[in-house]
Write the structure tokens for this entry.
Amino acid sequence: MALTGLEIFKLLPKTNCKKCGMPTCLAFAMALAQKRAKLDDCPDVSQEAKDKLAAAAAPPMRKVVFGSAQTQVQIGQETVMFRHEEKFHNPTTLAVTVSDTLTGEDLKKRIETVSALQFERVGTKIGVGAIAVVNDSGSADSFVAACEAAKAGGDLPLILVTQSSKAMAAAAARVKETVPLLAWAEPDTAEEMAKIAKENGCPLAARAETIDALTELTEKIKTHGVEDIVLSCPEGADLRDRLFDLSRMRTLALKKVFRPLGYPTISFVGDGDGDVQMASAIGLICKYSGIVVVDTAEPYALLPMLTTVMNIFTDPQKPVQVEPKVYPIGEPDANSPVMFTTNFSLTYYTVESDVEASRVPSYILVVDTEGTSVLTAYSGDKLNEKAVADAMAKFGVDKLVKHRKLIIPGYVAVMSGKLEEATNWEILVGPRECSMLPKYLQEVWN
Amino acid sequence: MPVPEIAESFTGSVNRVTLGATKDGGGTRTSIVTVGGARNMVYGGSPNDAGEKPVIAMDVLDARPDDWPDALLEPYKDVLDSPGDWAKKCVEEYGAELICLKFEAIHPDKGDKDATHAVKVTEEVLKAVGVPLVLWSCGFDEKDNQVMPKVSGAAKGENCLIGTVTEDNYKSLTAIALADGHFLITEAPLDINIAKQVNILASDMGFPLERIVTFQSTGALGYGIEYAYSIQERQRQAALTGDKMMAMPAICDVGYESWRAKEAKLADAPGWGDAADRGPMWEAATAVCLLQAGVDIIRMRHPRAVAAVKGFIDQVCQKNNS
């Protein structure tokens, strides 16, 4: 939590020496509080004061990074409980498990399957962000072998999951250059696990039975020099308790600036089939889990989870836009219909979906309206006959088709006249609601 | 370091709404459904503050749908021409707690059926199942104003949830729903100010606020769900801070919206998994996501999606909430 000018003043030498360029220490403190000055400008400030000020300036939830440089993921540093208050910053990382009971070809294949869970949605790549190697075998040797295979088999960041400090020490030493997340330290293994994390320069996940025990645990881990901590709720607790705990931990971190819980979180979803895991995972993505680890590698279950991450973590202040250009739907030819809409993604994808449903191959011209919908753009004069005519010229619409007919959204029927003049195309007024497009296209164009 | 207390106390809560009337209440329903009652944000505070369990209303259409993908038609292929049997199947086989009868075929472009048809279907479904009903108009104002008052009358005394009324078209349905003792759905196009405005309009006509359920409009996963998500959270926040015009339980239309998504209906999409799995899961995912923001009634379609969401609700909600 930011300190006030007076609180900062108490930490300063109070000599009024003017070396910082300010007339008094109080004036300097006020400037610091308003971030108009840097503490370094004071040559006499004590180390204690520096530490206190640095700690106070730290974000309420720490950012934790793992994985090697190219595929690194970062979690945490969230600032709000609800996305409309600002935005959610670091998208939940989805991880899929690889058990160390697998060997040889089976192990290799599982790693390949998990790494291949990458998709493209609306022009953006989304995918599984980490592999969680789980020490189900109980053997340190098997764990090391599986971790090395995961490191060799792909470049996704690793999460090493074992309760045994012996297995962890052996595996972490072998893959430390990929900066894996070590999961986990429990109250009775805290010291050894923290030592391993410190030696190998890796972040460490902490797991305890209750929030109180977790608080003690992170404080203990910190005294051993590990700062990058990820919090895990007890795995045994039912989903409801975990969701309530995650909300409580987030509130404590953000609203109370309670440092021992000021870290991102990790949740494991191991039970049930793909359907059940998907539902649980989506619940945890929405409500505050920085990492969600699932067992299922079914694309049908992963795609909705990844899409949830994408949607919930979009910035509510910025309308999501699509690139203004001509989008062919199906395989349109020189006789196919041409219609336009705006580049607000929601508008575009609704139109696209309904044009697809019509099974009439078509061209959709996307006019740049700065990400606003048809009516908003029209009332804001971002959508007018000039914008449409310019877009038609820019994207060479007249070369795509032989006819000269343009279908326009029903909501802007009023611009038909001017648009006809501006383009010399015949204007056909489409339906107001694009759910009526399939019927409209089938009737008007056939 | 001792863990600090979180002392959050809200002055308001979400209204509790009980749908359906049994014989004692002057109707013919064999079960009733209570929703709402939350006194905190979703997972905020303690489970005691979470209010009633959210419920699923399974969609039954008044005529055979002509644009449903195969994966969605399959479970209902024997009952598509009989709304009564369709509703029965939803209740008896899939455990629907509510049936949402959607009058699609009254739309001028989708069959243009008349009030006689709609009344017949309403009576058929009332007879076939004992759960409370949601009665949902087609969205074409003129036609809705002709047909829905008759539908309301046919279900008089059953404490149905009937809608939807919008800012531009609320008078006739609000008046008749009031006269027939139903609950009312107010609809807004993902705009929280309009949502409040419609509630004010209905309230000005004398419709009791505690008999309203809001429909903020729904975006499917991948198709604008984030807008619906944040509006539901803001609605809940408003209710908790004591805004009586926003304290209604919320209904969302997941079935229709999610099955429009490419991910749900595209038959052949290598790398996305089997269409038979994808569609139901897109629907279930959309529902779970909205549950996290705080909705009370979810309209759904596919039995597998319904099962997944019911399973999720059972996991995250306490039984016998008070």
